[in-house]
């Protein structure tokens, strides 16, 4: 497993990371034993970065990871945690809270659930419009000084917010959606990060399964893709047609669609670390196969022709979510 540097100030991590969100019900039911086995398989394969959020399953995901890493040497993994999204007892989503006092409370519970004395990368999940980002980052910086956090990251914010945050404390990486059908960061956000020496941890590299080559439909009311525009009737058919063009290209390289899509993201720069959302060992094994797929200029040109920027039908989130994304307001271009 090769390593990549997360920005000028961040840690070295494996060239792909494991996103653990889907292990806690976001895409419908998941098998606990298989999820833990998948985390162990990822670590055994050399993956060092585990990504989560304290609101995934209302703490379930952190407890799951905590159980999985309990007997793993601490120098074999890094945990990246997002905070701030509010939930109610029914699992419904509310607002975001990135006040300094709230952040410290969230962090205390995160450390307890994970069974760790520090988080490797800590980041607000979204920009809280009621709290200046400088206050949030300044408070996390205090947690760095206290030893509870090693590095500070950001998530789903635009260039102006990135610059304001970086003026307070070095930022290791921006976590944001980036895939063959979500390429908006290329316009303003990615250039800003590169100017400032900030890495990218790319989530949604398979567009939540849409371009995995395995899409069989959402898994019931607990699966948030039921409401996602790209999965709605009319849009999903058009998007799956794009997948079939990718399947033809992948076949020429003896690869799967998922491997092609992951390899494409990884090929966009050594400062980008794709997060794969595998929750089963077979899907993890397939994703790891992308590491052996070195895309040639001809491959990249064929992919670009098959799925040009902006080709996807439907937005990446519903209208309510899109309205609160700082990345969409200030720098996330079409596609």
UniProtKB/TrEMBL annotation:
Keywords: Oxidoreductase. Pfam families: Aldo_ket_red. GO terms for cellular component: cytoplasm. InterPro entries: AKR, Aldo-Keto_reductase, NAD(P)_OxRdtase_dom_sf, NADP_OxRdtase_dom. One of its GO terms (molecular function) is oxidoreductase activity. Residues 15-306 form the NADP-dependent oxidoreductase domain. PANTHER family: AFLATOXIN B1 ALDEHYDE REDUCTASE, ALDO-KETO REDUCTASE YAKC [NADP(+)]. This is Aldo/keto reductase.
